[in-house]
Design goal:
By secondary structure, this protein is an alpha/beta fold. It is built from 19 helices and 14 strands. The chain has helices at 11-22, 34-41, 52-61, 71-76, 98-109, 127-138, 159-164, 176-185, 187-191, 201-232, 236-244, 265-278, 284-307, 335-345, 358-364, 374-378, 391-394, 398-404, 419-424; strands at residues 3-7, 26-30, 65-68, 80-83, 115-119, 145-149, 169-173, 196-199, 316-320, 349-353, 369-370, 383-386, 409-412, 428-430. The strands form two sheets. An eight-stranded mixed beta sheet has the order 3-2-1-4-5-6-7-8, with helices on both faces. A six-stranded parallel beta sheet has the order 11-10-9-12-13-14. The termini are far apart. It binds uridine-5'-diphosphate-glucuronic acid. Uridine-5'-diphosphate-glucuronic acid binds at residues 122, 152-156, 212, 215, 219, 253-255, 257, 260-262, 264-265, 324-325.
């Protein structure tokens, strides 16, 4: 078991730090954000991630997990340093590596004995080489280090489970010694025979992008099939189920919807595209997946407009669900942002409700009408739009909605409502790739 510092306490860093301490390592989670560290020290988790508080509390209480803003000291006290800071989208779609480079300089300056420096943040292929040279340039002492690329495959909302029970671990390293150290870091998983892929740094970096872009392709593909289903009168769910029975295709990530969002797929597909263009190896498939996804988000608004006979001015739309998927408060690149902005641009009014993402959406749209439950949101609405597949929306009481709304119009962008019920109750409705009429 190792002494570890994880730099960055966002979705990736905090879940990784907590998970690594749960594996028996002694972990310091470090961040320059003083208020975040203060909250964490007080037992407050700054993000909504089911199960995370339990893991954090458990390991803080047994002394294996601590928090600090003193990154230099944390670096000096550790055998392994994980970089888990953000890599947001830059101006031209490329990943913005400012935070990662700053952390690398800091690690270099504080390197006082052999350490393994490991990147968890999603960084473009080739970044490992740059980080190694930055650390070398900033070293104050002639000490050796190794570099490991250990990409994360965590899904927001299921990140704790994904970290503690992953389907694979990818380790791209500059030496065998580093791989052995990493094996020790992940010892419980190694003993459990979780598949571990040992490789070089660029291959590990590529695995991450190739995986995310492939899943994004799959979603855009099924969304286009769904759109075609609408045109030919087929049901996309039956199509997806039958496709998924073929082991070569697999049923996962074949759920049509309003277009993928979140901090990963939109950013990573663009970063991969930007890299491939820069290297003159264009990726037409990824380019198409991005364009399809952008169109899908706009298509949802057009569906709404259609349901309202192109007359949205002054109408109130109940938007149920703001986060980019269920079980998270993250609204980054959420399809609901496009929906809300288009409703506003077309002089409609928004009644918004989400069980956890209201505060985050308020940063983007402080002036729409936020409601404390779906009943309040749908009251006197001219149309209801479901944007997120929260469990509480799956069981919506349609009879009650019919009584509360001004006009019984529903757009179900997640295909979670029962079509028979909608027809029986006389709703005018639409969805993605399924029947919308008798
Ligand atoms: C994604 C990957 O699934 C993780 O493996 C990866 O580690 C992570 O990105 C990352 O790079 O950090 P995440 O963005 O949290 O995880 O969420 P997903 O569950 O993958 O969903 C992404 C988007 O695709 C959501 O908007 C979701 O609604 C949409 N989606 C997903 C569909 O529209 N259809 C599907 O069948 C599946």
């Amino acid at each position: 078991m190792k002494n570890i510092t994880v730099i960055g306490t966002g979705y990736v860093g905090l879940v990784s730090g907590a998970g690594l301490s749960d594996f028996g390592n002694k972990v310091i989670c470090a961040d320059i954000d003083k208020s975040k560290i203060k909250s964490l020290k007080a037992g407050i988790i700054p993000i909504y991630e089911p199960g995370l508080k339990e893991v954090v509390d458990r390991n803080v209480n047994n002394g294996r997990l601590t928090f600090t803003t003193d990154i230099p000291q944390a670096v000096r006290n550790s055998d392994v340093i994980f970089i888990g800071v953000g890599t947001p989208e830059g101006k031209n779609g490329e990943a913005d590596l400012t935070a990662v480079f700053t952390v690398a300089e800091l690690i270099g300056r504080n390197l006082d004995n052999y350490k393994v420096i490991c990147t968890k943040s999603t960084v473009p292929i080739g970044t490992g080489t740059n980080l190694i040279s930055i650390i070398n340039k900033n070293k104050k002492q002639e000490v050796k280090f190794d570099y490991v690329s250990n990409p994360e495959f965590l899904r927001e909302g299921a990140a704790v489970q994904d970290f503690l029970m992953p389907n694979r671990i990818v380790l791209g390293a500059t030496s065998k010694k580093a791989l052995q150290i990493m094996q020790d870091v992940y010892r419980p998983l190694y003993i459990n025979e979780t598949p571990i892929i040992y490789t070089d740094v660029p291959t590990a970096e590529m695995i991450k992008y190739a995986s995310n872009a492939f899943l994004a392709l799959k979603i855009s593909y099924i969304n286009e099939i769904a759109n075609l289903c609408e045109a030919v009168g087929a049901d996309v769910h039956v199509v997806a189920k039958a496709m998924g029975s073929d082991g070569r295709i697999s049923p996962k990530f074949l759920h049509p919807g309003p277009g993928f969002g979140g901090s990963c797929f939109p950013k990573d597909t663009k970063a991969l595209l930007s890299l491939s263009n820069a290297l003159n190896e264009p990726m037409k498939t990824v380019e198409a997946a991005i364009a399809t996804n952008d169109q899908q988000k706009v298509r949802m608004f057009n569906k709404l407009l259609n349901l309202l006979d192109n007359d949205i001015q002054g109408k109130t739309i109940a938007v149920l669900g703001l986060s980019f998927k269920q079980m998270t408060d993250d609204v980054r690149e959420s399809a609901s942002i496009v929906m809300i902005s288009k409703i506003i641009d077309n002089d409609g009014l928004v009644n918004a409700y989400d069980p956890v993402a209201e505060e985050n959406m308020k940063e983007l749209y402080p002036n729409i009408n936020y409601c404390s439950d779906w009943q309040e949101a749908v009251k006197d609405a001219d149309a209801v739009v479901i944007m997120t597949e929260w469990h509480e929306f799956r069981g919506l009481d349609l009879v009650k909605i019919k009584l509360l709304v001004k006009t019984p119009i529903i757009l179900d962008t997640r295909n979670i409502l029962n079509i028979k019920d909608l027809i029986t109750l006389g709703f005018k409705f639409d969805n993605v790739g399924r029947k919308s009429k008798n």
